[in-house]
Design a protein that fits this description.
Blueprint: H1 3-18, H2 22-32, E1 40-42, E2 48-51, H3 54-66, H4 71-80, E3 84-85, E4 91-94, H5 114-123, H6 126-129, H7 134-206, E5 210-211, E6 214-215, H8 218-224
Antiparallel strand pairs: 1-2, 2-4, 3-4, 5-6
């Protein structure tokens, strides 16, 4: 091998060693991008990153950078570079050389050889290195979706209950008003009936015969006059 060729290969080796793997660089850029913080972002102290929404991450972000939409494959890639899942309640991944604002540390992360990866898997607690199966991810997504759907149904039922309560109050008010009006109408009918009866009485009184300027009560006379029996 010539001296020039040796220098060229050495330079390529140095450049290769000083540049982080594309997977790590893309992942770092994704976590750093504030536009995607709702889906993926750093944790509170910037020592690890969290995938907040797996569905959106798999559907929208993975295909744009990694040409696939398989979240399990993404997690397996992280494991080969020494990342660990450090939370049981969320998808939070940690590597001591993967820190917020310290991009230069990425060059220190190296892909593990197959035998090293198996050794770590056998000596590390399952929770830290276990790769989630696709059905596990689906179950978690399904659980989240089911929970959201339940909350949505619950809210919908509450709104429906409130609406029915308001309608019931309106109907009760209208019924009370109708009862009051009905009672008033009955009172008017009763008053009118009494007035008509009084008018009839007065009219009958006016039609009674008069004797020497005095009006006679025929009905009273008819009651007091007895037929005379002739013996």
């Amino acid at each position: 091998m010539s001296h020039d060729q040796f220098d060229k290969e050495l330079l390529e080796y140095v450049i290769k060693k000083s540049s982080p793997p594309p997977f790590l660089l893309k992942t770092y850029m994704l976590v750093e991008d504030p536009a995607t913080d709702v889906v993926i972002s750093w944790n509170a102290d910037g020592t690890a990153f969290v995938v907040w929404h797996i569905d959106e991450f798999s559907r929208d972000l993975l295909p744009s950078l990694f040409k696939h939409s398989n979240f399990s494959s993404f997690v397996r890639q992280l494991n080969t570079y020494g990342f660990r899942k450090i939370s049981t309640s969320r998808w939070e991944f940690y590597n001591e050389m993967f820190r917020k604002g310290e991009r230069e540390l990425l060059c220190n992360i190296r892909r593990r050889k197959a035998w090293e990866h198996k050794l770590v898997r056998s000596n590390t607690p399952i929770q830290m290195t276990m790769v989630p199966k696709e059905n596990d991810v689906d179950q978690e997504s399904s659980s989240t979706s089911s929970s959201s759907s339940s909350r949505s149904r619950s809210n919908s039922l509450l709104e429906e209950n409130k609406r029915l309560k308001r309608e019931n109050e309106v109907l009760t008010s209208e019924l009370t008003s109708m009862k009051n009006k009905c009672n008033e109408l009955l009172k008017l009918v009763a008053v009118n009936t009494n007035m008509e009866q009084q008018d009839d009485t007065n009219m009958n009184h006016d039609q009674s015969p008069m004797l020497f300027g005095v009006r006679l009560n025929v009905s009273s006379m008819s009651k007091t006059i007895r037929p005379v029996e002739i013996n």
